Amino acid sequence: MDRTNEALLSDLIVLAKADNIVTESEYDLIFKLATAMDISKEVVDSLFESPVPSVVQESELQRITHFYKLMLVMNVDQEAHDKELVVIRNFGVKMGIRPGVIDQMLFKMEQYEDKIIPSEEIMKIFQTYYN
Fold first, then answer.
1. Gyration radius of the chain over CA positions
2. Contact 73, 10 (CB under 8 A)
């Protein structure tokens, strides 16, 4: 079993649990992502009980992708609670994402009805801060 994928899923679970309520839409998205990683429902449910520690991805693209997945989980229920915002900011900083990028991503998501930022926009944000 790939511990890195379990750690990445655990991050999503920690974020989903930040407001003390895991909605059906949050669980479904996490399970869908787990399925894409070849992780069983049993493992997902065990991670909800005992998340494993975070692992920072090596490549910048992996970190961007992981941060985006965190944003998707936070927004899937159409509510970004203050506790979730604190958790996602902490994950971003821990991943080495600049605070300005985190702020810009969180600001930009509010401009879209479904809170999903198109990938081209995400890349523009990162290029602005990293070039």
1. 14
2. no
Q: Report residue 2 as tokens.
A: 């790939």
**pLDDT tens profile 3-19:** 889 999 999 999 999 99
- Asked if 93 and 80 count as a contact pair (C-beta separation under 8 A), the reply is no
Is this structure's pTM higher than 0.85?
yes
Helix, strand, or coil (residue 17) = helix
Cβ contact 55:4 at 8 Å: yes
Using the CB atoms, write b or e for 1-18: b if 16+ within 10 Å: eeeebbbbbbbbbbbbbb
Which one-letter amino acid corresponds to residue 131? N
Residue 55: exposed, middle, or buried by beta-carbon count in 10 A (0-12, 13-18, 19+)? middle
